Each structure stands twice: as C-alpha cells, then as structure tokens.
Amino acid sequence: MKTGIIDVGGGFRDIYGAGVLDYCQDNGIEFDYTIGVSAGSANIATFLARQRGRSYTFYTEYVFRKEYASLGNFLRKGSYVDLDYAYGTLSNTGGENPLDFEALLQNPAEFVIVACNAITGEPIYYDKSRVRVDDCDALKASSALPVFIKPYVVDGVPGFDGGIVDPIPVERAFADGCDRVVLILTRPVDQPRIPKKDRTPARILARRYPKAAERLRDRWRTYNEGVERAQEYAKEGRLLIVAPDDTCGLSTLSRSLDSLKQMYAKGLRDAEAIPAFLKA
Model-level pTM greater than 0.90? Predict the structure, then answer.
C-alpha cells in the first residue's frame, strides 16, 4: 500500500502542520509520497530530513525577526517575507539552523512541491530532483504569496505560491499512485474560503501577471471544491483529513506566539488519528 501525506500550507498558521509532522516523527510514521504547498513544502522538507522540532523553531522564533518578515523587507526588497533569508541564510550549510540536505535527499519518499507559473497561471509540480544542497529555490517559489512577496524565479520561470493554483492537491496524490492519503489543512474543514479576501490582491497582481491573477481571483472556489473532493475520498476510507477545530485567531501572516504555540499543540493532538487510519 502506497501512503501519502499532503501539507497545504497556510503561512505562519501552518505551524499546525509542523505539529502533525512532528507527531509522525515521534511515532515512527513515514510515508511513501509527500506533497507540500507553500509553507507546507518547508514543513515536508524538514520532515523528510528527519529534523524533528526544526520547523517549530522557525515559526516560534525566526518569524519574529525583522530580517524574516517585516514592512522594511517589503519597502526595500518588494517582499514582506524574505525567502532568501528563511530558505538560504538560515537553512544553508553553515547557517543558523541548516536543513540536512543529505538526509532529505537520501529519504526514499517521493517529494512533490506545488507552485504556480506566474506567466501562464498553470501549476508547476517540482519533484525532489529540484531540491539540491543549499538550493531551496523550488520551496521559495511555492511560498511566494502574490503581492506580499515577489515571484521567485526558478530555472528562468517566475513562480508564485502553489496555493493559488492547486491548494488541495489530493487528485495529484492519487494520480501518482497513492492508496491512502493524509491531508493536513490549517483551517477547520467546515470553514470555506470566501472570495472577498483575494479580490484586491488579484486586482493588483493583474497589472503584471494577469493569468496568475485569474487563478488568485478564483482560489476560493478551487480551495472549496478541493475540500469537497477530499471529504468524498474520506467517506470512501481512502483519505484522512487532519484539520484544527479553530485557527486560534491566526491568519496567513499574523504572529502571536501564544496562538502559534496553541496551533502547534493542536497539530500534535489531532495527528493521533493517523496511526489507526494507516492500519485500517
């Protein structure tokens, strides 16, 4: 049986996913196939490198640094979150908290990273071959939240956050041969995404990247339809949805240490459903 896990991201709110994945490490749960979207790709990378607790440090310590996320970054560099600081300065060999690239690349699990082609608006699915020592460019593109962060160029192609084009990639997981899939959401399963939040960013984005803007404008529908499909798979016993009962007041880029810790604890708790699902 081929097992898979998907972390859909959600900005700093995805400390929840870090909790789920740390639970899996604590209990020796591994997967044959993994997909990361946006911040979820970073969580998955750390999980595959078997660096338990590393993501927690990023969410509870580094995100509060002005070098990581700040208005100053946006004014100087055009990006509120400095992806090169997060995925380079901190994560490269010799950095403050380096990713164990060797362990990641030796892990037999498949690793898919979802991004959006800023020019065409089509999805990009990077595989593990695009993660190299001191080269997390695919993760950076997957995490480049439109308007707040400039598109990140990978192999000549500007990429945006994968969440605007394939926010719930369950179909991809099953198409790639998974029999059972764990889906990590970072908002309650019964909380639909509403169109209002993306309208203004989409209008701004349309000035330079009209195709990506179309995707952003329709993200609410894509997300909600993805959750509905996931629920159908869950009824069939092929998929387990792990989702928080609330977001502790966190939005994509909000930072409250108490709320972040609460979300992490929820992830550790809710992941307790995974062993029984995989054994059923």
Answer: yes
